[in-house]
Amino acid sequence: MPKRAGVSRGVTVDKWHQLQALSLETKLGLSVLVLAVIAGFITWRVSERRAATVHDDRRNDVSGPVESDAPSPTRYPIADRLRSYPVLYSILGNRWINKEELTHPAESKSALARWLRIDGYEVRPSMLDRLLVMFESRSGMGERRRSIKGDPLSLAATMTELHFAAWLEANGFPFELTKTGPDFKVQLMEDSWLEIEVTTPRQDVWFADIFDRLMFIKRVSGFSLSFGFYREDIPEDGSVIDELEPPEAEKLVLNVVNEALTTIASAEGASTRESPSFEQRCPEIGLRATWWNDGSQYMSGATGPTSPNYWEIWQRIQNSAVQKAKKQLPPDQTRGLLIGADQLNNGDRGYWADWVHDQPDEYVPIQWDVIPPQIKYVIIYKVSWSKLEPHCALLLVNEESPFPHVDGFEEFQRKLFPIRYRTVPSKFTVWASTDRCTDRKWF
């Protein structure tokens, strides 16, 4: 009996353990089964929802299916073109690309975004990318790279800075790209440095900006355009266009752009210059624009009877000099101011340069007594998009300034500005970088 009872008890215990193990396996299996059923249900619901969304989108949007209840935003591709300029691509990055691809190019604050989209402008980002490679490891370049991405209005000045830097390097003048104060410290002799600030007058920044925006609209729409700035249209109590703050200028420019885009979208049929599709007026900045649709895609600029005038450029130089003297060019030593000429209105620039070139002193549009005296040298610099030298640069020297010449200036002038620009005996000292400055093609 004890033996049988022991055997019987042992068998019972083993079976009990087997039943417990079987129970655990069953529980795990059931749990897995339940989870699988839940996952399958969720997957089925998601699939049903997607199918319904795609069906609705296909029914309401002929452009194709999207996986969202909201309509897909219009995109303006830019990434493929930007990849042609690897350094620029790395500086701007995917976030900048995505933002610009969701912004109509004519409404974007970035001139660079328009450069990348306008056929014929490829030389501009190409030159900028080339210059960024040249000075990639140079001290002070971090600030320049950040401004290209984050400060659209500084693009013209940054482009001019880097192009001027390449010209200096090609001619053997060491320099520093500074982080504070004037943009350049140029070494003329072993212990002699000339500090130069680079700028572009505000009016010319937004003039170039609106020019590129309107040209983009013209090319995309196929319309023809004639426009110009007429100072006589500006009300006497209106804003001083030379002193418009960036937010105010941007607001005015966007109003012009939005009006053009909206009106073109609803314009119907052919039209002529004599009987245009529509006309725009923006008296705050003296803008007149005429749009017509004759298939020619013509574009021209025009100016009013009182503009340009031969003092216009000097007024902009004066405004820039006074502004820069307050911060970057204090009156403690001889300094230079470089004005980027790419954005200067061609008519104004040509008119002014003609008078400087060959008129008697009493008619020359240069007035040094309105320029802070520490600014002894003014350089007007037009970038060449194909060469590492200016298309034309003029050097104006203020011989009336009480500040002395910087040691080594004569060699600087001789190498970079070898041609005397004025053709008559004169109290004004003006030098040119190349014969191109006198053949009028730089206008």
Kindly describe this structure.
It is a single chain. The chain is of the alpha+beta class. Among the domains are: 1-64; 74-134, no CATH class; 203-303, no CATH class. 45% of the residues lie in helices and 15% in strands. It contains 12 helices and 12 strands. It has helices at residues 2-60, 79-82, 86-101, 111-115, 123-134, 141-150, 155-170, 202-221, 246-266, 312-325, 346-358, 409-416; strands at 175-177, 184-189, 192-199, 224-229, 278-282, 287-292, 299-303, 335-340, 375-382, 392-397, 419-420, 429-432. The strands form 2 sheets. Strands 1-2-3-8-9-10-12-11 form an 8-stranded mixed beta sheet, with helices on both faces. A 4-stranded mixed beta sheet has the order 5-6-4-7, covered by helices on one side. A hairpin with a 2-residue loop joins β2 (184-189) and β3. α5 (123-134) packs across α7 (155-170) and α8 packs parallel to α9. The radius of gyration is 34 Å and the shape is globular. 31% of the residues are buried. The model is unreliable at 1-28 and 46-67 (pLDDT under 50).
- What structural class do the secondary elements suggest? alpha+beta
DSSP E strands, number: 12
Widest sheet: strand ordering = 1-2-3-8-9-10-12-11
Summed up, the helix count is 12
- Uncertain runs are 1-28, 46-67
What do the pLDDT scores average to? 82
Q: Main sheet, how many strands, which sense, barrel?
A: 8 strands, mixed
What is the beta-strand fraction?
A: 5-15%
Radius of gyration: 34 Å
Distance between the termini: 124 Å
Order of helices and strands: HHHHHHHEEEHEHEEEHEHEEHEE
Percentage of residues in helical conformation: 40-55%
Overall shape: it is globular
